[in-house]
Amino acid sequence: IEATNLSEGRGTTRPFEVVGAPGIDARALCDAIDSFEVDGLACRPVLFEPTFQKWGKQVCSGAVLSCVDRDALPSVRAGLAVIAAAMRVAPDVFQWRAEAYEFVDTIAAMDLLMGSDNARLVLERGGSLDEACSDFHEATRRFVQRARPHLLYLRRSGELCVPS
After folding, report:
1. Which of 86, 97, 125, 148 could make a disulfide contact with 109, Cβ separation 3.0–4.6 Å?
2. Local mean pLDDT, 10-residue blocks, the chain (164 residues)
3. pLDDT tens-digit profile of 36-58?
4. 48 in a structural domain
5. No. of helices (H) and no. of strands (E), the chain
6. Which residues have C-beta within 8 Å of that of residue 34, sequence separation ≥ 6?
């Protein structure tokens, strides 16, 4: 969400729980998010007004995002589902972040955050979430292989907290 013009709720009492922008149909956004059937994710329509940052002092419509099963929720997939849903229901509102991010102006913010341009390009052409997540999942698997002896956090089942 950080790499888009959508508010992630900074300047509200629910930062990082709400997402939206002026001009988005909140119910349509939630329906589109739900259509991706992301395990462990629930959403409901909301209106909110950030006091600062993106869309500060403007009423935004969007979704409250709730993790209903932390062991099942694939967070990257959930974030990409929200972005894909916004692109689908509000193509006239949605935009990628255009200004420099983390002092880097030669790489798109989304590409910088994801480690490659794959997710952005896949979403732009309407590809699947599986394809959009593929580079990230592969990089995570390589990292976990190297870091396995040092990892401390496991799922309740005893498995590592990594994408499957």
Report:
1. 97
2. 98 98 99 98 98 97 97 93 99 96 95 95 97 88 83 60 54
3. 999 999 999 999 999 999 999 99
4. yes
5. 5, 3
6. 43
- Does 83 reside within a domain? yes
Residue 82 forms part of a structural domain: yes
Residue matched to tokens 């979704």: 63
Nearest to 19 by CA among 52, 54, 80, 64: 64
Residue 96, both tokens = 């990628």
Q: Report how far residue 61's alpha carbon sits from residue 49's, in angstroms, rounded to the nearest whole number.
A: 9
pTM for the predicted model, two decimal places: 0.89
Structural domain span for residue 79:
18-150
Instruction: Please name the helix (run of DSSP H) or strand (run of DSSP E) that holds residue 66, with its range, or none.
Output: strand 60-67
